[in-house]
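thought: fold this chain, then report.
action: predict
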Amino acid sequence: MIRIVRAEAGSDRLLKWVGYEGVTILDFARDREYELVSVGRFPVGSGGTIDWTETPGELVIATGDDGQIESFVDRFMPESDSYVLLWSNFAIPGVVVSAAKLADYLPDILDRNPEFWIYGPGSGVLLENTFAGVVTVSRIPGGEDPVRCR
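observation:
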């Protein structure tokens, strides 16, 4: 979905990130903005994932395993033109993925990045996939947010 390539001659960097079709790589400021209005509104557990025992139960929409992730996206993520994917590894930039490409990329995402969040900007809904293969869909504490994909 994203990869590192050699930067153009004359660039101030040797390498750069590039996205596949339908993928826009977020700069640090946008990545952080999306994180603050989504994952950042939840209590964090010791492993860096959301602490669901400290999250009000009425916010949780569904829980299952990573074999259900595609159906969870279809059933519980609000319809949108695009979604934000955030990774647990800050060295990898977050991305905006077109809704048309998300389903195509999910199997590859699960193989390469077992811990991530899918956020529907402006929807107030977040999906978490953990290293343990647990998928949880939840409304974001504090209600809907004003951020849209840009």
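thought: worth noting. The beta strands are 2-6, 15-19, 23-25, 60-65, 82-87, 95-98, 116-120, 125-129, 134-139.
final: tokens above.
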